[in-house]
Write a structure and sequence with these properties.
The structure holds two protein chains of two kinds. By secondary structure, chain A is an alpha+beta fold. Chain A folds into two domains: about 110 residues, Beta Barrel (OB fold (Dihydrolipoamide Acetyltransferase, E2P)), CATH 2.40.50; about 120 residues, OB fold (Dihydrolipoamide Acetyltransferase, E2P). Chain A contains four helices and eleven strands. The two termini of chain A are about 20 Å apart. Chain B is an all-beta fold. Chain B is globular, with a radius of gyration of 21 Å. The chains are: A alpha+beta, B mainly beta. Chains A and B meet through β4 of A and β5 of B. β4 of chain A pairs antiparallel with β5 of chain B.
Amino acid sequence: MRDDQAVIQELVRDSSFIFTGTVVELSVSTVANLTPRDNFAAVRIDRPLRSDPALGDLRGRLATVELLSRGELQPDEKAIFFTVNWILGGGIAVREVAHLNAQQEDSVAAEVARMPERHLADRLTDAALVVVAEVTRVKPTPFDISWRNAPQWAAASLGIVDVLRGKPPQNATVLFPTSGRPTWALAPRLTKGQRAIFLLHPPGDRPPLPEEDNLVPSQRFIALDPADVQPESARMLIERLLGEGPSR
Amino acid sequence: MSVVRVVNITPVELSEEVDLAWQPSLGVNPANPDKIVIVFHKTPPGNVGYWYSSDRGQTWQLVSQPGDQADQSVGLGTSGVLYWAIALTPTETTVNLEVLRTADLLNGPFTQIDNTPVRTEFDQPYVHAFSYRPPMPPDVDKLYIGYLDRSQNIWHSMIATLDVCLDAKAASPIFTPVVLNPRPIVPPQDGYEVRPAAHSDGTVYVAYKGYTVPYNGVTETVFTNIVVARDDGWGSGGFKDLTDPDGKAGRIVRPNVRIFDGPTTFLGNQRLNNDLSIAVDPTNSDKLYIVWGDNANSNYTLRVRRSLDQWGNYGGRGNHWSGDLLTVDNAVLACLAINSDGRVGFMYQKLVANKWETHFQRTTDNTGTNWDDIILARTKVPTNVTADYSRLIAVGRDFYGVFPAWNIPNPANYPATPATASNPNGATFLRNTTKTAPWELRGTGATINTPINPSVDPYFFMVAEDGPAPPTNLTGIVDG
């Protein structure tokens, strides 16, 4: 059984559903249409540690866990289950990634709580420019009909107040989606007068940029992840993370 | 008399789900319509799998699959094999089309079966699976995947393309991409809907839009031909069997149709220019119906037309088209299917008094001008943009469909399925709801008494002809 922090960090990253649970019965299924198998275990969820918020209150619910190997867990045994979602409906079935001793519960919970910070660190690592700035102007680009899920970019001009990383060009501009389509639902939307810390990334091949935005490529950035726009109150955290370097 | 089932497919386990369901698609096993699959597009990272029913839509299970999935569409063969075309975004900067196959809808595994080079620039896949029953078993699954291909042209052009696979159950299926539009390129060229429809005699039709004038961003207007192409050998001949008087493959059913498509032309938060569907009569491949939406007049209007040309007629089948048989103003999400009686089904959503009404209409005779009308849902216009498409499939005499709608569980919202003691919400809700007014979604466990914010959910429906063995537990009965 593995228990070091690096392993926990990796398991948390790779598991969509993590919980402390107690094995109720082996080789059974609690899910409609799912035939029992030798490597199944019915597990009572004692404490959800990471789960889809849409699942609501899971405490006391049974889940069928497809174990990596049978024989490692016995009825009434408690463990932390690192799993990925499998079936939701007519019960809950998940596939095991790993399990750890239940005594590691607080360490796992702490690592789950650190996920937003680790994600922010990843975004900082990838950012070409990190600045405190104010949006001085927002201008839509021509409507893009060529792609159904086109971002419908708008260009936000930044008045840079302070630089936390990189060398900003004279006229830094951030392209952000205005489309209401699901693809862009989580992307930050910028408004004139908005002051924040911006994690700016160079555009890639996708999503395609506006054809006629008249922007100098070196001045053009994107910010598509919710973590790419941070309140100024996060400055101490960001400076600390920038000082620590890549998170992994 | 017909019987109707309307089911909000979100299971009780996901009672606190608040995402937007988008572009739903549906597959039904033609040999066993108890087996149904629905996919749709959700707010990332919510696109994680497909929804499976083994009891003809009464209950549903989300089967998770890895990957960040965007646009997607499904089809099922008679052997129960699922074909799933997905726009996968393995990184923030790429999007790939993959065609996956599995014979086990709960356990997988999935096999990627498309053998063409990875298509990295495409949009809006649409799956049409057709199981052909030869004199000697087993059935052969023909698979047609329509999409817009942008990899063959300049960056911002998109070309209506149909992948043809003549034996999708083979160990190594062969996919042949067919570029449909032979007419001059007019950026951005072709419309989003590429819609195939196959018949057991080997005839395959495909409807698509070929733009005729470059997009005008000021007037937010598209001008497009509505085109139907035909192939008489399961698609193996490149869809050149129906020609237009201009000498090119593909009959222009209606030239230079005007459609508004821009940031200010939404209808009830639905974007226009998504409405093209075609259906062929399973009893007679001469008979086909088409529907499209246009702004020829002041309103956005759906127009249903048909072709009845027979073999040997000048120009062949699909050459002559009727005028409008049925028009519906201010309506979107149009889709057609024809059942084994030759009866045409037509589903759409119509904006009425600032609500979306989901209608299902069927022809009541052979004129094509007389239709009944079942209102499946009458729901609030969502605050965010919704949908684009829905899907309708006929199996035997029955129709199966999926549509997106605002999910308030008020029985008044579901006119075709009146409330009963056992089903107080009218439509069947699997997720937790109140059973009396105030009509609310509810959480689970500790939050069972907490209202959950409404959102757009996918709804399954079926309309069954009253027959010797009607499906069980249907939720409503309507005159048809």
